[in-house]
Specification:
Order of helices and strands of chain B: HEEEEHEEHEEEEHEEH
Number of domains of chain B: 1
Number of helices of chain A: 4
Helix content of chain A: 25-40%
CATH superfamily of chain B: GHMP Kinase, N-terminal domain
Radius of gyration of chain B: 19 Å
Number of strands of chain A: 9
Oligomer: heterodimer
Structural class of chain B: alpha+beta
Radius of gyration of chain A: 18 Å
Number of strands of chain B: 12
Distance between the termini of chain B: 37 Å
Largest sheet of chain B: 6 strands, mixed
Number of domains of chain A: 1
Largest sheet of chain A: 5 strands, mixed
CATH class of chain A: Alpha Beta
Largest interface: A-B, 32 and 35 residues
CATH superfamily of chain A: GHMP Kinase, N-terminal domain
Distance between the termini of chain A: 56 Å
Shape of chain A: globular
Helix content of chain B: 25-40%
Strand content of chain B: 25-35%
Strand order of the largest sheet of chain A: 1-2-3-5-4
CATH topology of chain B: Ribosomal Protein S5, domain 2
Shape of chain B: elongated
Number of helices of chain B: 5
Chain lengths: ~240, ~260
């Protein structure tokens, strides 16, 4: 049976309701919250600041350091053991790669920009929500960026290419292909691409197309939240 | 740093604080929001005390009881001083600050016998409910202890058991029942700090860094105390302790009203 009607009644190209806000953590140099459906990510940016340990410092350029973490109570089943896991370390790494190309850090030699991402509640798409929040937090911190970064997970379920899959869809009985994608909205270049599950090359092509199209909608939400922050401040 | 302390001390000499508060006045507003992670956690809450923000979540699991308490459920309290919440906090293994925070909140809950752990027993010696409380500061603008204890208590009050299939021995986390945790008592924690000869509550980050001594007091509804933690490099005279406990008793009534 083909997957035509989605569990939550959405159309296959329809994103879940989104909410975005910047300046949510006062002590941070930049911060943001990004919510998509029931997945809630917050991100804080500290820096540029001196990098410790010192041997990691690069006199040519500053570096970006990302840390993705799920709060212990934020998983779908049992408690997530606190502390870094193989999964969270890999996600931190791909998040860093997804964001790195929009930054020019040559002006910050020996420095680090720390990005901390925390998930408070999850219903799939956590790395993408984290990237959306982190990109907004970097902009909020006033770090020079050539573009924002927007991200979404596309799923291939029984031949249907659906955007922004939920946990319920991820657990679909006959399996599914899960494809998180991050793009630079102005150019459509892809900075994060992963796949879990079996799909055809043609389905991948469709998934990337749908991902790029959907990220542009997310971009509008991110932009709006950043603009709101600055009109708020100028008042 | 000592310049800030000098400033704080000179203001305190006139019974004044940087933000205009009285010495025993909390920042406003203090807000408690329940169910902030309702999809994931069995219970959750967010607490704001002024700009300080802390979240807490409760997960309920089924596991083995400790051999010395075969018909008691298990309580675990964990806190992590997230580097997201304060530029001074670092990633890595739990810092002593995280451990102290978790243990002080733990004692308030455990020693007040807040949770009737016998009611968490499913099968003596084999299966009991394990309640894990995880606490995270989101923005540390001082007084994490009181905010953390309040968030933990609010998350416990918000918690509902997930469905448990006794035959299969499996918890279905996608289905929440209407059954609440068996909460008998509610301990509220108040931290009083001492700077020179002055006592104040709800310190800001700067006041916290300037403290000589601090005392966290867990207070029950009937005015009994169930946990204490003295901190800071300075000492306290018996007379100081009496004054600090009196302040804590008074302030606990205010915080309790918010729950």
């Amino acid at each position: 049976m083909a997957y035509k009607k989605r569990f939550d009644g959405r159309k296959i190209e329809e994103l879940r309701p989104m909410e975005a806000k910047t300046g949510v953590i006062k002590r941070a140099d930049g911060s943001a919250m990004f919510k998509i459906g029931k997945t809630v990510a917050i991100a804080a940016v500290y820096g540029p600041r001196e990098l410790h340990p010192k041997f990691l410092q690069n006199p040519e350029t500053g570096i970006l350091r990302c840390n993705y973490n799920m709060m212990a109570f934020s998983g779908s089943g049992e408690r997530v053991r606190p502390g870094p896991s193989r999964r969270s370390k890999e996600i931190s790494m791909v998040t860093e790669k997804a964001l790195r190309s929009v930054l020019d850090l040559r002006k910050f030699p020996n420095a680090v920009i720390d990005v901390y991402i925390e998930l408070i509640q999850t219903d799939s798409g956590t790395r993408c929500a984290g990237i959306c929040a982190a990109a907004m937090a970097l902009a909020d911190a006033g770090i020079p960026m050539k573009d924002l970064v927007s991200a979404v997970a596309v799923g291939v379920i029984d031949g249907s290419v659906c955007v922004d899959v939920t946990k319920e869809e991820e657990d679909y009985e006959s399996g599914m292909g899960d494809i998180p994608i991050a793009i630079l909205p102005r150019t459509g270049e892809v900075t994060l691409l992963q796949l879990d599950g079996e799909i055809t090359p043609d389905e991948l092509k469709k998934a990337v197309e749908l991902g790029v199209k959907s990220c542009k909608q997310i971009y509008e939400i991110q932009k709006k939240a950043l603009k709101e922050r600055f009109t708020r401040e100028s008042k | 740093m000592s310049m800030i302390k000098d400033h704080i001390v000179s203001l305190l000499a006139k019974d004044m604080r940087e933000d205009g508060r009285k010495l025993t006045e909390y920042r406003k507003p203090i807000t408690i929001e329940y169910g902030i992670s309702a999809k994931s956690a069995e219970g959750s809450a967010r607490v704001f005390i002024g700009d300080t923000e802390v979240v807490a979540g409760v997960k309920l699991e089924v596991g083995k009881p400790f051999p010395d308490t075969p018909d008691d459920g298990v309580l675990m309290v964990n806190a992590e001083l997230l580097p997201l919440s304060n530029p001074e906090f670092e990633s890595g293994p739990p810092s002593i600050g995280s451990i102290e925070l978790a243990r002080v909140v733990d004692r308030g809950i455990r020693e007040s016998h807040m949770i009737d752990t016998e009611k968490l027993c499913i099968k003596k010696g084999e299966k009991v409910w394990i309640a894990c409380i995880d606490i995270y500061p989101i923005n540390d603008a001082g007084n994490l202890f009181d905010a953390a204890a309040l968030a933990a208590l609010a998350a416990l009050k918000d918690a509902r058991f997930p469905e448990y299939d006794e035959k299969e021995g499996k918890v279905d986390y996608s289905k929440k029942t209407k059954t609440k945790l068996p909460l008998a008592k509610e301990a509220v924690e108040i931290t009083v700090i001492k700077i020179k000869d002055k006592f104040l509550v709800d310190p800001t980050t700067e006041e916290w860094e300037a403290l000589d001594a601090r005392l966290t007091v867990a207070v029950l509804e009937d005015g009994k105390l169930c946990a204490l933690q003295k901190g800071g490099d300075g000492s306290l005279k018996p007379d100081d302790i009496e004054k600090m406990v009196d302040i804590a008793l008074e302030k606990s009534k205010e915080l309790r009203k918010l729950l």
